[in-house]
Amino acid sequence: MFDEHVDSMRNSFTRSRAELRGLQLVSSDKLFRLVNDFIQHQEELLNDSGAMIDRLKRGDFTKPEDLFTSEMKEKTNTNAQLFDEILKQMRKELGIGGT
User: Fold this and answer.
1) Structural domain includes residue 30
2) Which of 76, 82, 83, 97 is most exposed by smallest CB count within 10 Å?
3) What is the pLDDT of residues 33-74, one digit of tens each?
C-alpha cells in the first residue's frame, strides 16, 4: 500500500517536473529561477515523504508528531508561496495581469 503511494507520488512529480522544465524553455530569467526553486523544494519534500513512509512501514510510531517535521511544514509553505509567485510571474509575462 505504501509503496504504491510513493510510486504514485514519484510518477506525478516526474510528469509535473517535465512540464515545468518545458516552461523554462520559454520563460524569463526570473520565472526560470522560481521554477527551479519550486522543483528543488518539491524533490526535497518527495524525499522527506518517502522517509516518513519508510518509518510508517517499519512501524516506527515512537514520536508520531515527528513524522511530519517542522522542516517539511516549512518546505510546504515555501512551495505554496513559490507556486503563487510562479503564477503571478506567468500572468505578468503573458500580459494578463500581475505586478
Assistant:
1) yes
2) 97
3) 999 999 888 888 888 877 777 777 777 666 666 666 777 788
